[in-house]
């Protein structure tokens, strides 16, 4: 007799003050369930309503083994398809079904996807600083813990939330104000000083976060070549992808893009035209494991490496999924890691207390000397304590960091 979907629950929790969302798919077989990540930290209530009101009635009673068919049904049933809210909702169910499939087979997810091609996943961490002294300190701490690739930023992506700049028009509203030319010059100076201090002992990454005009991005990329970055991320806004043709011809620096991608047409153009080197897709935003497998295979054909988005606003279930797919992918480049290190480690102290997260989520991938290792539990391998999750409710505050503005007060892509 087929095992079917009996119920779907949405679990919202914020153990570190960041909204996380996990979907629990319960089955007709007693005690058998799966978990998936549907986190959209800034619109979590909208995702929850979509799952509870529309997806749950649609899929309850369906055979859990037919993952592709269920994915297609969820995606096309709304007629107007795509978008982050819709895809994150689909992702929660999709990942949970893969988790269930692994538990039925008594195999970890990576084994279902063809098995390991490596034993551990190389990761990079973020070193930020309000000044060079603080940045150097954070780089040293990551180096001491075996991190071999480090993303370097001054003041995040440039700019701080607050009052307008002195050069802004009178009456300009509050926001994250950015003087793009100043950001470029400070970034070049930052990497000059980082290389002078650390030489070639570390691999470097930088994220523009789409906060430049395309012409400025070309200027920055060309100037950064001397510092031998592993990649420059999101130099061009998603809405202006045609500029990658010019950027590609103007610089040899490796290019990464994709954490804002939602659908096939977003990434097909860049990959098939060899315009990027690293694909930075956020797996839950494209609909989960089912489309991610197709995407990583498509990218491999064109020699593009995967570097899945792994930020702090991704649940441990989502982080584990990244690692599982990395383990079985020949075209893995590197993995962004915002997960948990061993207790009392230097990195854990640097990142702040993580005890609450560990109380809510169990079975997280483990970090050791620059690599992350998955556990060998069936399915995704991560579980959640629902009673603990309830202790940390999500909040619907207005998001400030995305209120990014140019020096004259106009909105800039965040």
Describe this structure in words.
The chain has 14 helices and 18 strands. By secondary structure, it is of the alpha/beta class. The model has no long low-confidence stretch (mean pLDDT 94).
Radius of gyration: 21 Å
How many DSSP helices?
14
**Helix/sheet category:** alpha/beta
What's the pLDDT, averaged over the residues?
Answer: 94
> Which regions have little confidence, pLDDT < 50, spanning 5+ residues?
none
Kindly state the percentage of residues in helix. Answer: 25-40%
Q: In this structure, how is the largest beta sheet organized?
A: 10 strands, mixed
Shape: globular
Instruction: Report the β-strand fraction as a percent range.
Output: 15-25%
Q: How many strands appear in the DSSP assignment?
A: 18
Distance between the termini: 50 Å
Summarize the structure.
The chain is α/β, with parallel strands linked by helices and 414 residues long. It contains 14 helices and 18 strands.
Chain-wise SSE layout:
Layout: E1 5-13, E2 20-27, E3 33-37, H1 44-59, H2 67-76, H3 84-105, H4 109-112, E4 121-129, H5 132-144, E5 149-154, E6 161-162, E7 175-178, H6 180-198, E8 203-207, H7 214-224, E9 231-233, H8 243-250, E10 255-257, H9 264-272, E11 278-279, H10 289-301, E12 305-306, H11 316-327, E13 335-336, H12 346-351, H13 355-360, E14 361-362, E15 366-368, E16 371-373, E17 383-384, H14 386-389, E18 404-406
Parallel strand pairs: 4-5, 4-13, 5-8, 7-18, 8-9, 9-10, 10-11, 11-12
Antiparallel strand pairs: 1-2, 2-3, 4-16, 6-7, 14-17, 15-16
């Amino acid at each position: 007799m087929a095992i079917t979907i009996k119920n779907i629950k949405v679990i919202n929790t914020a153990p570190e003050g960041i909204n996380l969302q996990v979907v629990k798919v319960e089955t007709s077989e007693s005690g058998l369930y799966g978990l998936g990540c549907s986190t959209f930290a800034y619109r979590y209530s909208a995702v929850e309503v979509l799952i509870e009101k529309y997806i749950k009635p649609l899929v309850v009673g369906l055979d859990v083994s037919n993952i592709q068919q269920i994915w297609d049904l969820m995606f096309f049933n709304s007629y107007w398809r795509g978008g982050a809210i819709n895809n994150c909702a689909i992702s929660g169910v999709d990942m949970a079904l893969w988790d269930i499939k692994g538990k039925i087979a008594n195999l970890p997810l990576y084994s279902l996807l063809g098995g390991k091609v490596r034993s551990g996943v190389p990761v990079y961490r973020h070193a930020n600083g309000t000044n060079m002294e603080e940045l150097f300190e954070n780089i040293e701490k990551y180096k001491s813990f075996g991190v071999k690739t480090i993303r370097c930023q001054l003041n995040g992506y440039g700019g701080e939330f607050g009052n307008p700049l002195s050069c802004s028009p009178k009456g300009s509203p509050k926001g994250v104000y950015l003087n793009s030319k100043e950001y470029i010059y400070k970034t070049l100076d930052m990497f000059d000083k980082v290389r002078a201090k650390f030489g070639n002992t570390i691999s470097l990454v930088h994220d523009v976060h789409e906060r430049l005009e395309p012409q400025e991005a070309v200027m920055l990329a060309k100037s950064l070549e001397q510092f031998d970055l592993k990649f420059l991320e999101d130099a061009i806004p998603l809405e202006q992808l045609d500029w990658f043709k010019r950027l590609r011809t103007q610089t040899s620096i490796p290019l990464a893009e994709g954490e804002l991608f939602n659908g096939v047409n977003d990434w097909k153009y860049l990959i098939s035209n060899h315009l990027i080197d690293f694909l930075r897709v956020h797996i839950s935003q494209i609909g989960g494991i089912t489309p991610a497998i197709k995407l990583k295979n498509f990218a491999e054909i064109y020699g593009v490496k995967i570097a899945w988005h792994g930020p702090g606003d991704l649940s441990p279930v989502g982080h584990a999924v990244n690692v599982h797919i990395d383990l079985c992918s020949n075209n893995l480049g590197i993995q962004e890691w915002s997960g948990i290190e061993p207790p009392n480690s230097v990195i854990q102290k640097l990142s702040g207390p993580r005890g609450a997260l560990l109380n809510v989520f169990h079975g997280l991938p483990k970090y050791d000397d620059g690599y992350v290792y998955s556990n060998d539990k069936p399915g995704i391998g991560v579980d959640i304590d629902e009673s603990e999750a309830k202790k940390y409710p999500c909040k619907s505050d207005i998001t400030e960091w995305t209120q990014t503005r140019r020096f004259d007060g106009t909105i800039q892509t965040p």
